[in-house]
Amino acid sequence: MITVSTSSETDRAYHHGDLRSALIEAGLTALETADPNELSLRQLAREVGVSATAVYRHFPDKHALLRALAETGLAKLFEQQSLAAAAAGGGSPGFAATGRAYVRFAVAHPGLFRLIFSHAELAGGAELGNNPAGRLLRANSEAMSGGDAAAAREMQVRAWAIAHGLAMLILDGHLPADDALIDATMPARDPCEI
């Protein structure tokens, strides 16, 4: 006896739900223990229970998946930084809080952090690019510099270099992942005094 499926592609997509989001979540989970270079579209397809060809409808290649993971990671970083700044009350304390949130994000999500920042094109180009986290850094620098474009640029580079440098020193095992160290490195004061 031969059976013929009467379900359409739409039915299968509905049955599974949002496949693109499921693949991104599976990729984020994989990055918790795997290097970004080890990610496999076929493996992610198996993990979410779909065929490999279904994956290629959403991500034509691995680079497209990595870009989506990086964009998701940058959105999560922005969210954590925004919450930290608001909790600190904005201004200098809020700006410093965004730096501490940046380092804590790196420590909590090392695979994702390395993915985002090991390929500048995934982060939207140089200087964090045109993404929420990059725009937040630029806006904070501009606000803290009083409208002086040169001072804002210097502050942006200095703040990012300190936060990113500390994050990488911790991730590479040169410094411990210690909250007191993170707080002491980025105290709540004018970033130009650092």
UniProtKB/TrEMBL annotation:
Keywords: DNA-binding, Transcription, Transcription regulation
Record carries keyword ATP-binding: no
Matches recorded under Pfam families: TetR_C_33, TetR_N
DNA-binding region(s), residue ranges: 40-59
Start and end residues of each HTH tetR-type domain: 17-77
PANTHER family linked: HTH-TYPE TRANSCRIPTIONAL REGULATOR RUTR (PTHR30055), TETR-FAMILY REGULATORY PROTEIN (PTHR30055:SF220)
Entry protein name: TetR/AcrR family transcriptional regulator
Species for this entry: Novosphingobium anseongense
Source taxonomy: Bacteria, Pseudomonadati, Pseudomonadota, Alphaproteobacteria, Sphingomonadales
